[in-house]
């Protein structure tokens, strides 16, 4: 199982956004720790609730910065955010419908972690020069 940690290479040069990214990494670490302790089922819904609230607030903050600084690829970035919001809702609906087995917990942790690393490391890095 991969360990997802924020590090300076993922910084976009904006303290508020970097702190929000770090909060998500902390939530994933908490889920991973719970899984190691055999308590992943108890923690997964808390993580999904956090994630649902997080994406609404964080993406709105990012999008506000991109608009304010006339980021030219804003519309595409916003679509990527909307797709991820839909994915989070899908996770929550699936969990509510069938509960959380180990496979579902690992999937959430792995897919969110992978998405986060790729999104920050590639997409968010594109807007970084505009918001500094």
Write the layout of secondary structure elements.
Blueprint: H1 15-36, H2 40-68, H3 74-98, H4 102-131
Describe this structure in words.
It contains 4 helices and no strands. It is mainly α and 132 residues long. The chain has a domain of 92 residues: Four Helix Bundle (Hemerythrin (Met), subunit A). Helix 1 runs antiparallel to helix 2, helix 2 packs antiparallel against helix 3 and helix 2 runs parallel beside helix 4. The longest helix is centred in the last third of the chain and has 30 residues.
Condensed summary:
The chain has 4 helices and no strands. The chain is mostly helical and 132 residues long.
Question: What is the CATH fold-level name of the domain at 40-131?
Answer: Four Helix Bundle (Hemerythrin (Met), subunit A)
Q: Roughly how many Å is the radius of gyration?
A: 15 Å
The CATH homologous superfamily of the domain at 40-131 is named Hemerythrin-like
Low-pLDDT runs of 5+ residues are: none
Mean pLDDT: 87
Shape: globular
Number of strands: 0
């Amino acid at each position: 199982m991969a360990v997802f940690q924020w590090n300076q290479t993922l910084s976009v040069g904006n303290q508020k956004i970097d702190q929000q990214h770090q909060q998500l990494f902390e939530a994933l670490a908490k889920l991973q720790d719970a899984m190691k302790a055999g308590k992943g089922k108890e923690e997964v819904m808390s993580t999904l609730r956090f994630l649902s609230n997080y994406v609404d607030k964080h993406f709105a903050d990012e999008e506000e910065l991109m608009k304010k600084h006339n980021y030219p690829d804003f519309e595409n970035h916003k679509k990527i955010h909307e797709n991820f919001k839909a994915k989070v809702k899908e996770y929550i609906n699936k969990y509510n419908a069938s509960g959380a087995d180990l496979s579902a917990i690992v999937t959430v942790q792995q897919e969110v972690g992978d998405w986060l690393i790729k999104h920050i490391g590639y997409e968010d890095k594109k807007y970084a020069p505009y918001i500094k």
